[in-house]
Amino acid sequence: MGTIVVVGTQWGDEGKGKITDILAEKADTVVRFQGGNNAGHTIVIGEETYKLHLVPSGILNPGKLCVLGSGMVIDPQVLINEIKGLEERGMDTSNIKISDRAHVIMPYHRQLDKLEEEKRTSKIGTTHRGIGPAYFDKISRIGIRVGELINEAEFAKKLKTALELKNELLEKLYGVEPLNFEEILKEYTEYGKALKDKVDDTSLITSRDIEKGKAVLFEGAQGAMLDIDYGTYPFVTSSSTISGSVCLGAGIGPRAIDSVVGILKAYTTRVGEGPFPTELHGEQAEALREAGGEYGTTTGRPRRIGWVDAVVLRLAHRLNGLTHGVITKLDVLSGLPSVKICTGYKHKGRIIKEWPASLEVVQECEPVYEEMEGWSQDLSEIDSYEDFPLQAREFVARLSEITGIKFSIVSVGPRRDQTKIIENIIF
Ligand code: IMP
Predict the structure, then answer these.
(1) Do the Cβ atoms of 30 and 56 come closer than 8 Å?
(2) Is the peptide bond before 234 cis (omega within 30 degrees of 0)?
(3) Which residues of 98-107 are buried (b: 16+ CB within 10 A; e: fewer)?
(4) pLDDT at 194
(5) Confidence (pTM)
(6) Which of 117, 271, 305 gets mutated to test ligand 1 (max ligand atoms within 8 A of its CB)?
(7) Sign, CA torsion 117/365/338/222
(8) Which 3 state secondary structure label does DSSP give 43?
(9) What is the pLDDT of residues 87-107, one digit of tens each?
(10) Buried-state track 235-274, b at ≥16 Cβ within 10 A, e below 16
(11) pLDDT digits (tens, 9 = 90+) for 382-392
C-alpha cells in the first residue's frame, strides 16, 4: 500500500472529484489538504448526483476515514450543512475527522471578501466564500483555528481580539456596520459543539496510517494555475494547490508521497478573471460550454472555455512531479471537424514553451496550435479505450508526447463506468 495525491493541472474544475471517488474505492483514508468551500466537486453515482464543497469525495465510498487537513479553511456552517445533507441521503459521516489546526472562516471573512473585491479596480472574481481573508488572517496570526472554536473560553478571547480589528476595518475603511460580538459568539459556539467530536490531530492520524502501510489518498482542490505562487498571480486562489502542499496541509513528511495524479480536461476552462491564452469566444465557446455543462458547481457562473494548453500542462507536470495523468471530458470534443492543442506561445517573434511569470508577457502571447483531425463518434458509451476512434487516441498520444505526461485514465462521462483505464493506478 502507499499514498496517491490527486491534483488539478489547469484552473480547477478538471474532474478531480470523480477520479478521487474512483481511486478512493481502494483507499483507507482520503484527505483534503488545502482550500475550502471555494471548491465544488460533482460526483455521479448511479442516478444520484452529489455536490461536495468541503468533505473529501472519499465519503461516497463507505467506511473510509475522511480527513479535512490543517491546510484547509473551514466554514463551519457550510460543513455542518454538508454533513447533514449526506446523512439525509443515508451516508455514514462518523468517519469524518477535522484538523484542530485548520482555520475557521468567520462572517467577517465572507464580508471582507465581497468588499475587497468591490473596491479592487482589477477584479479577481473570487467565489466570495471568505477564502482569501481567512488565509490572510492565518498568515497575520489573528486567525481562529478549529481547535479554538471548540473551546468556548478560548474562542471568546480569540474572537474578541480579531473582531476589534475587523470592525475597525469594516467601519472606517468600508463604512459599513460593525459585526456583533455576542451574536457571532453564540452562533459559532453552537457550531463548535456540533463539530467537537470530529476534531482531532489529523497529522498524527494520517502519518500513523501511512506508517502502518494503509492506502492514503490526498485530494487536491482548484488547479496548478490557481496556485498562489506559480499560478496566474494575482488571479489565483489563496492557497498552494500543488502536490508539495500536501506535506504542509496534511502534516506529513515529503518522503511519504508515492504517486501524483494530475487531472486535466481535454480542453481548458476557467472561472473568474485573469489571463487565459487559448480562450475561445463566440459560437465555438458556447457550443463547448453547453456540451460540457461548463457552469460552476460553487457559484453557477458560466466557465470560460478554450483549447487544451500544453504550456500550462508542462508547468503543472513540473511543479507537481506527476507520475500519472488523467484526461477527462474527452467525449465533449466529439463531432468537431478538427481539434487543437496549443504547443507554445509566440511572443515578439520568439516561441515560448514554458509559462512566464509576467502576466504582461502572457497577455502579449499568441498561442501556437497544432490542429488534428476530429472524430464524429460519441465516445461516452464505447466500452474500452482500444475501441475509441483512431483520431481520439491520436489526440491523447500527441498530448502525452508534447507535455511529457503519461496518461493512465481517459474519462468520457460523469458515470463511474465511463472511466477508461489505459494503465491501472495502484496504491
Ligand atoms: P477564491 O478562491 O474564492 O479566493 O477565488 C480566487 C480565484 O480562484 C477565482 O478566480 C475563483 O473563480 C477561482 N477558484 C477558486 N476555487 C475554484 C475551484 O474550485 N474551481 C475553479 N476556480 C476556482
Answers:
(1) yes
(2) yes
(3) bbbbbbbbbb
(4) 98
(5) 0.96
(6) 271
(7) negative
(8) strand
(9) 999 999 999 999 999 999 999
(10) bbbbbbbbbbbbbbbbbbeeebbbbbbbbbbbbbbbbbbb
(11) 999 999 999 99
Report the CATH fold assignment for 103-195.
Answer: Adenylosuccinate Synthetase, subunit A; domain 2 (1.10.300)
Q: Are 333 and 266 in contact (CB under 8 A)?
A: yes
* pLDDT: which is higher, 50 or 199: 199
Nearest Cα residue to atom 8 of ligand 1: 237
Q: What CATH code would you report for 264-421?
A: 3.90.170.10
Paired strand residues for 369? 342
What are the cell numbers at 407?
496518461
Residue 2 C-alpha to ligand 1 middle, in angstroms?
A: 30
The answer, yes or no, to whether residue 298 has pLDDT greater than 80, is no
Strands (E), 71-152: 73-74, 96-99, 103-104
Which sequence spans correspond to the domains of the chain? 2-99+199-259, 103-195, 264-421
- Residue 123 three-state SS: coil
With the CA atoms of 275, 280, 282 and 284 taken in that order, what torsion angle do they form, in degrees rounded to the nearest 10? -160
Count CA atoms closer than 13 A to 231's CA, side-chain side: 27
Tell me which of 9, 32, 38, 225 to substitute to probe ligand 1's pocket, judged by most ligand atoms within 8 Å of the beta carbon: 38
Quick check: helix, strand or coil at residue 36? coil
Superfamily of domain 2-99+199-259: Adenylosuccinate Synthetase, subunit A, domain 1 (3.40.440.10)
* Per annotation, catalytic residue among 28, 41, 109, 317: 41
Query: CA–CA separation, 303 vs 344, rounded Å?
Result: 23
Name the catalytic one among 13, 100, 113, 227: 13
Q: Are 236 and 273 in contact (CB under 8 A)?
A: no
Quick count: other Cβ atoms within 10 Å of Cβ 323? 18
- Rounded-to-integer distance, Cα 50 and Cα 263, Å: 19
3-class DSSP state for residue 70? Answer: coil
Question: Is 197 known to be catalytic?
Answer: no
* Backbone angles phi and psi of 284, in degrees to 5: -65, -45
Residue type, 185: L
- State the DSSP code for 39: -
Spatial contact of 196 and 183, defined as CB atoms under 8 Å apart: no
Nearest alpha carbon to residue 142 among 161, 125, 128: 161
